[in-house]
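Feature request, filed as a ticket because there's no other form

It would be nice if the structure record came with a short human-readable summary line next to the tokens. Right now we just get the raw output. Example of a typical job, pasted below so the devs can see what we mean:
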Amino acid sequence: NLGTITDTEPKFMRSQHVWGSDYSLVTDARAVNVKDPSYGAIGDGLADDTAALQKAINENDIVFVPKGYYRVSQPLVLKANTRLFGLGVISSIVPFFDSPAFADANNPQPLVKTANSSSGSTQLSFLELFVNSRTAGVYGLDWQVGSNSYVRNITVKRKSDNGFTNASNVDFEKSIIKIANNGGGKWYNLFVEEWQSTFSPSFRILSIDGTNNPLSFYMLNVEGGVGEAMIEMNKVKNVNVYHLKSEGDYPILWIKDSEAVGIYGRAGLQTSIGYDSTYPSGYEQVTPSSFRIDNSRNITLASLVDRLNMGCDQGGAMVPGCGAAPDKWHMLLERAAAGEVLTPVLDRPILYKIQ
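Raw output as currently delivered:
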């Protein structure tokens, strides 16, 4: 509820951050249900629902996915104006881990893929993308649609069929979510979780590559990545994150060769390995930190704080958020032609700005 916008509160102060009046939900009379007889989705976690879901997407603009586990054997491809929505984590899209389409670890395929359209108006909402950790040939989302699009309350998890327990996982060295080309829009409450991966420098929870379309996140939550960064922004412009929450001990964000990026608020059970430690073999051997910025300009980072690490027994295993003690790690490393800057240990910057 935005309340009343008064004369002293210009409309743009709020309207630029909220979804439009045409946002579609389950109450939209134009929506079709994928379980309707004309489409025939089952959603029992056993049947192959790929054809049913794709038929509903191809023939309609607004598609509702009710409660269920919908197995797919190949990517679902959205149109530029598709509005696909469910009921939250009880509306789950799950891959067949042994599907030929998801078998190539060198060329993994997404569960959901958008059109590459700068003017598209795709909406993806209230769904769980459950990426099976038995295969390195599948990831969550390939997003290439522009600033008129919305993502709202999407959960992406990379786990075994049994969740955290009895995991039968394989190495995954790519990204769980990719935003590239014309990718942009407003993203609300994105939660991505990955606790099964082995250490791999190239692994990313979220990669944003080469897009200049306005892209804004409102509560971005990433957890458990053990690559050189959980989030990588490479050669991007016009990206803003309004609160970033994370868990883990490896860098949360790496900004490279980018401009006009803002991070406004950060917290969570996310630390770093100590400044006197080194990353595993194959990783770039730089001073460990939570944030890394290379050769970028017009960058704003505000309120970079973390949950205080009170200590924990790791028992010989990586326990996310149980890195070095607070007085042994750096929040931010900036590297540029002029040299290197490290924020002091125990420093939690209220504002760090690169012109």
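Something like this underneath would help us a lot:
Residues 309 and 325 are 7 Å apart (CA to CA).
The first helix runs from residue 12 to 15.
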